Amino acid sequence: MKIWKKFKALIITALIVLVLLTSGMIIKNVFLKRVEERIQSAFNFSEMKLSLFPPSLVMEDARSLSASPFFSAKRIIIKISYRSLLSRSKPFNVTIEEPIVRIYETISTGSVTSPDSTGILPFSVERGLIKGGEIYYWGDNFSFQTKNVNALFVLKNNFYALQAESQENIFSSGNHYRQNMGSLQLILEGTNQEIEIQRIRINGPDVFVRGEGKLKNLKDPEFQLDTTFTFNTDQIAELLDLPFDWEGKTSGEGVLRRQDGFLGITADFSSDSLFLNDVFMGNTSGKIMYVENSGG
């Protein structure tokens, strides 16, 4: 009799587990299908794979439908934990391999066009990993490109943190100035309203910049960076379109701002190797004050 009761209890337990597993598979399948439909409304891709153990989506050769920003990636892997399936926001982990982002500034408004990201995926990013990415930005007054980007992104309760590094960063201004800035390290955290740049470091053969500051309004960025820098003076002269011929290295501290659509620089500098029109100037110090719309 005791053996029969134990056997019956075992059968009931097995049936309950089977029902739960079957229900879970149905829920996951329905959810993943819903995600697939949402993704198809925002991306083209060569192949999409669904997996239930663990719940995940893999997209091959993904391309956004929007032109600016334009996004593509060799592979996107989205993983959803079993815990996330029971939450309302349904956060997910994503790995993006070899993404390319292209952004064009609109000429009429001076702002960057941005797609409506709401509803593309029915859950929020909990953790994101980027491997070997590239970013290109073309504006009316300057442009830059960043290659070999690796980054880690974490989101919790609308507060996020980002750590990123890239090996090649090229900045261009107008039709003449083009400078390879070297490697970049970036650490920031914040919300959609305000981002604290805890660390930005640029290190190249002729450039060194270290800074920290704040960034607002990502669609039309406003920022302030407190910086320490070392440049070749001919680079600064070409960037700011200064008269005369400048040579030699200069170091200093300053503030870089972008406000109301215009870039501004205020800095104190010094140099012991400055040449002006091929004339050695000895130990030199001074101040730079420059605003994009009015000069300086």
Gyration radius, rounded: 26 Å
Total strands? 19
CA-based shape = elongated
Distance between the termini: 97 Å
Largest β-sheet summary: 16 strands, mixed
SS element count, helices: 3
Structural class: alpha+beta
> Helix and strand succession?
HEEEEHEEEEEEEEEHEEEEEE
Q: Roughly what is the average pLDDT, rounded to an integer?
A: 76
Strand content: over 45%
Residue runs with pLDDT of under 50 for 5 or more positions:
4-27, 107-122
- Percent in helix: 10-25%
Could you walk me through the main structural features you see in this protein, from its secondary elements to its overall organization?
By secondary structure, this protein is α+β, with helices and mostly antiparallel strands. It has three helices and 19 strands. The strands form two sheets. It has a 16-stranded mixed β-sheet that branches. The protein has a three-stranded antiparallel β-sheet with strand order 14-17-18. The longest helix is centred in the N-terminal third of the chain and has 39 residues. The protein is elongated and about 70 Å long.
